[in-house]
Amino acid sequence: MIFTFFGDSLPVESACFHCRVKVVQSSVKLTTFAVSIKVIMQYIQVQFNCEPNTEVLTDVLSAGLGEIGFESFVQIETGLEAYIPLPDFLPEQVDQLLSDFPLEAEITYYFREMEDKNWNEEWEKNYFQPVVIDSALCIYSSFHQIEGEFGYRILIDPKMAFGTGHHQTTELMIRELLKMDIQNKSLLDMGCGTAMLAILASMKGASPVTAIDIDEWAYQNATENVRLNDIGNIRLLQGGAELLGDETYDVILANINRNILLQDIPGYTQVLNRNGRLILSGFYKEDIPVIRAAGEAQGLSYRYFSGMDEWVTVTFCLE
User: Fold this and answer.
1) Is there a domain that residue 150 lies in?
2) Helix, strand, coil % over all residues of the chain, rounded to 5
3) Residues 6 or more apart from 316 whose CB is under 8 A from it?
């Protein structure tokens, strides 16, 4: 994934750490998660200098950092910048993460304290740009001036939740939705983030629509975005696949990451209607064989994949 923000900050240097990592490469691929910044809080900025500086390496690094409290990330020329609330920052956790890092790399890092700001406001005004998908869709916020005709317009208050349309996987999911006939079909959006996909599905006639995200900030943001677009048929839930019960769906969207998808594909299959479609994203083209095998093991029929850069969506059908 990784896009976020951050503007000017106070240059208060705190420390510099060097960590050499030479580990046999593994197949770990954790690539996406929701990110959120509380409104006003003091943050630590940590700069990671990576050799080699590849998208795969920074994706794996950011996923690991997310698990120890880091909330947002920026890819830079030398590697990755990461941000964490000051009370949550423990350098020893970073050192442990790097010592256990599953890819062969040399990583150095240093950190500094940043001034207090309303970072959501900074990001919204300076970093979130409208997303235009041909003439079919425009995703924008209230501070944008939008010109032109579009088939669908979605107004979102992003709050830095993953799923604003900028990332390749989100755009791939958007394009899949745009070409589908989902009129009067029930739809589930797992890992909904901003709820942008659920909102688009509702606008295209899907009903009822359920959107689920495990992150509290994403859930609150999704609730606000549904209200902003005056959508009345989306049911929002906070949690994971454990919330799936007796309700079944004609279409299921899940843009999460490979490991979570592999864990949850059986649950998705149980709530997918006959002739229903399961569309998955949040992983690389090289992961297709393991995703396909997991789906087919549950009786799903593999249909096709779509790609953008190294990222893909895979579509299954339950016949």
Assistant:
1) no
2) 30, 35, 40
3) 277, 278, 279, 280, 295, 300, 301, 302, 303
Q: Is 228 helix (H, G, I), strand (E, B) or coil?
A: helix
Over residues 43-52, the pLDDT tens digits come to 889 999 999 9
Q: Which residues pair with 16 in a beta bridge?
A: 110
Residue 127 inside a domain? The answer is no
Cβ burial, residue 41 (10 Å; 0-12/13-18/19+): middle
Radius of gyration of the chain (CA): 20
End-to-end CA gap in the chain: 32
Q: What is the pLDDT of residue 18?
A: 35
Same domain, yes or no, for 252 and 114? Answer: no
CATH code at 67?
3.30.70
Q: Are 152 and 200 in contact (CB under 8 A)?
A: yes
State the pLDDT at residue 162: 44
* 51 strand-pairing partners: 106
Q: Is 113:44 a contact under the CB 8 Å cutoff?
A: yes
Contact 186, 248 (CB under 8 A): yes
Q: Which of 26-40, 136-150, 266-280 has the lowest mean pLDDT?
A: 26-40
Task: Kindly report the average pLDDT of the chain as a whole number.
Answer: 80
3-state SS, residue 20 = strand
Please, which pLDDT band fits residue 59 given cuts at 50, 70 and 90?
Answer: confident
